[in-house]
Amino acid sequence: MEAISSPDSAHEPSQGQLDRLLVTLDVDVQSFALIQVQRGRRLIGEPVDAIMVHYVLTGTHYLTIEGYDPVDCPAGSIVLIPPALRPLVAVDRERVIDVRAKERSTLTRDGLLMVDATAGGEPDLRYVSGIVHASFSGSFGLLDNLSKPIAQHVGDYGIVRDAFSLMTEEVRNPSLGSRALTSALMKTCLVLMIRRFMECGEQESSLLGILSDNRLSKSIAEVLDRPAHPHTIKSMADAASMSRSSFCQKFGQAFALTPMQFVTKTRLHHAAQMLRSTPLPVKVIAASVGYSSRSQFSRAFRNAYGEDPSTFRGRTTARPTDAPKLN
Predict the structure, then answer these.
(1) 187/282 same-domain check
(2) What angle do the packed helices 15-22 and 214-225 form, to 10 degrees?
(3) Which of 16, 104, 276, 278 is the most exposed place for a label (fewest CB within 10 A)?
(4) Cα within 13 Å of Cα(206), Cβ side
(5) Which domain holds residue 120?
């Protein structure tokens, strides 16, 4: 007998649509540190304008952030902390002595940033911390919309343990391509974390809210597949099989931006990828993402990235003599 889909299931995104969205996830690791904490001490971190990623190596990672419920994570967990929040990390809920991360940080001889929140004994908690640039972390804002700390255990994925080991090694011994490799490894870990969230039915999380409606994901895929197309609110609503008003409301709730702002962001994201990876003239790249003039494109790009396309290309195109700066 043929199964009958529930009304809600018609709105759930397909596997292919999720894959199409996830492939656009753009991760850029800005810094990397190895951190150790002893029982009875709590590490006070500094808020940063980026996503903070913690991976628990050993012990229990007890995270408290003002205004949010505590997060208690065993070894093998990934913790994502939104921008501008101050993380407080301890081993448990017992009374602690506070120590500031910036006062306990040193750069080791091999180039790794070490944060030591112990009193000289063996650490009860060890984790690695990466700062992931989030202002343009993906064309559809998968990380941009993270609004609360979340955690997921992924210790059964051997590739995650290996990836963080490799990231640590790349920071210790940087060479050509270290930053690109570290960012690619971090993306692998985040995609596996997202997969686990989906398997556990955690779509209500702010991290995955934009993936939870098949109608929106169809519209998103249309823009991602054809960034130069003259998209309008009507064409995007039609792709989602929704009225304009309903589509704009749902889209705004999921993305915290308008449909046309999303179109602009997607076009510039594609352009940035081409500037990094191809020698195409800026004028050609501008046309390929839907801009009729180079000057119009340059203004939009500068507003989003803080620099003109040519400067961005020169800064982000690796040369053999470039030494990656991860911390």
Answers:
(1) no
(2) 50
(3) 16
(4) 16
(5) 24-199
Model confidence pLDDT, tens digit, residues 61-109: 999 999 999 999 999 999 999 888 999 999 998 888 999 998 999 887 6
CA separation for the pair 217, 143 (Å, rounded): 16
Place of tokens 């704009």: 248
Instruction: From 199, 232, 265, give the residue that closes a domain.
Output: 199
Structure token digits, residue 264: 């602009």
The token pair at 151 is 């955690």
**Mean pLDDT for the stretch of residues 273-288:** 90
CB-based contact 160:93 (threshold 8 Å): no
Taking residue 83's Cβ as centre, other Cβ atoms within 10 Å add up to 19
Measure the CA angle with vertex 316, ends 290 and 49; round to 5°.
90
What is the model's pTM? 0.69
How far apart (Å, rounded) are the C-alpha atoms in residues 171 and 22? 26
What is the gyration radius of the CA atoms in the chain, in angstroms? 21
Residue 107's Cα: distance from chain center in Å?
A: 25
Q: Are residues 173 and 263 in the same domain?
A: no
Give how many domains the chain has, as a whole number.
2
pLDDT tens, 39-56? 999 999 998 877 899 999
Instruction: Report the CATH number that the domain containing residue 61 is assigned in CATH.
Output: 2.60.120.280
Q: Is there a contact between 109 and 30 (Cβ–Cβ < 8 Å)?
A: no
Whether residues 143 and 233 fall in one domain: no
Give, to the nearest 10 degrees, the angle between helix 259-277 and helix 309-316: 50
Buried b (16+ CB within 10 A) or exposed e, 127-144: bbbbbbbbebbbbbbbbb
What pLDDT score was predicted for residue 24? 62
246: CATH = 1.10.10.60
